[in-house]
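Hypothesis: this fold can be encoded by more than one sequence.
Test: take the structure tokens below, design a sequence, compare later.
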């Protein structure tokens, strides 16, 4: 009999682990300046996909508005989200500032592209109430 996770394509496996970890990330531009247009968002997505690939992370969804971007990532347990986020923001900032210098200077962003803060939320799987019920049902009689 094969393990249950073999029938679920979202569950990835490693040598000693089976996992299904997703995070919703939101990055906001410095001072919430409206810098992004469609072309710049597309380039930002390309850069972030490359960074994710380097971490063995799958960028499942990407979208944004003038002053922020949303990412849905599927990541392995060996990846510290803070390190992934630092790399995503740092690399994208360097490339976007180099490639869109005129646009960024006109808006007055200076040398900082992203706000220092970010949102990271875990997502996917059943609600916490279902998990609690499952764990409680696993109690052995004493």
């Amino acid at each position: 009999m094969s393990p249950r996770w073999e029938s679920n394509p979202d569950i990835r496996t490693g040598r000693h682990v089976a996992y299904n970890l997703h995070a919703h990330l939101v990055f906001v531009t410095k001072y919430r300046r409206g810098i992004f247009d469609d072309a710049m968002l597309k380039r930002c997505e390309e850069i972030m996909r490359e960074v994710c690939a380097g971490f063995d992370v799958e960028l499942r969804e990407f979208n944004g508005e003038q002053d922020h971007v949303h990412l849905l990532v599927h990541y392995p347990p060996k990846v510290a989200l803070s390190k992934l986020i630092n790399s995503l923001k740092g690399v994208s900032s360097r490339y976007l500032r180099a490639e869109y210098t005129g646009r960024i200077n006109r808006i007055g962003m200076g040398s900082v592209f992203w706000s220092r803060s970010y949102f990271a939320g875990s997502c996917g799987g059943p609600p916490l109430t279902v998990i609690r019920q499952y764990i409680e049902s696993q109690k052995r009689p004493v």
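The chain has a mean pLDDT of 90. The first helix runs from residue 38 to 54.
Hypothesis status: open.
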